[in-house]
Design a protein that fits this description.
With 96 residues, the chain is of the alpha+beta class. It is built from 2 helices and 4 strands; from the N terminus they run ββββαα. The protein has helices spanning 56-59, 67-78, and strands at residues 10-16, 22-27, 34-36, 42-48. A hairpin with a 5-residue loop joins β3 and β4 (42-48). The longest helix has 12 residues, at 67-78. It is elongated.
Length: 96
């Protein structure tokens, strides 16, 4: 394998900014901030806004969208618009 063709892949700790939950994984990302992990080693610390620990999809705290209200708004907005009339297609024959 050629040298210097792949980025450095090393252990990194990611921390959720909302919940404070941390997990150790491997990444090519780097950071000046460090943290001492439970194994006693010091790893780069990368703080992220959202992880599976705080994302609404994974926590079950999803917001439900008001789809009925959106449909009504659509109908009010386009109620006056009429679809174009569809006349006979040229070259068509009557069915029968």
């Amino acid at each position: 394998m050629k040298a210097n063709t792949h980025p450095d892949y090393h252990p990194v700790v990611f921390q959720d900014a909302t919940t404070g939950t941390s997990f150790l994984t491997r990444s090519t990302s780097t950071s000046e901030a460090t943290i001492e992990w439970t194994d006693g080693n010091i790893y780069p610390l990368i703080t992220v806004e959202v992880t599976s620990d705080s994302h609404p999809f994974w926590t079950g705290n999803q917001r439900l969208m008001d789809t009925a209200g959106r449909v009504e708004k659509f109908h009010r907005k386009y109620a006056s618009a009429r679809p174009p009339s569809r006349g006979p297609v040229s070259g068509s024959r009557p069915v029968g």
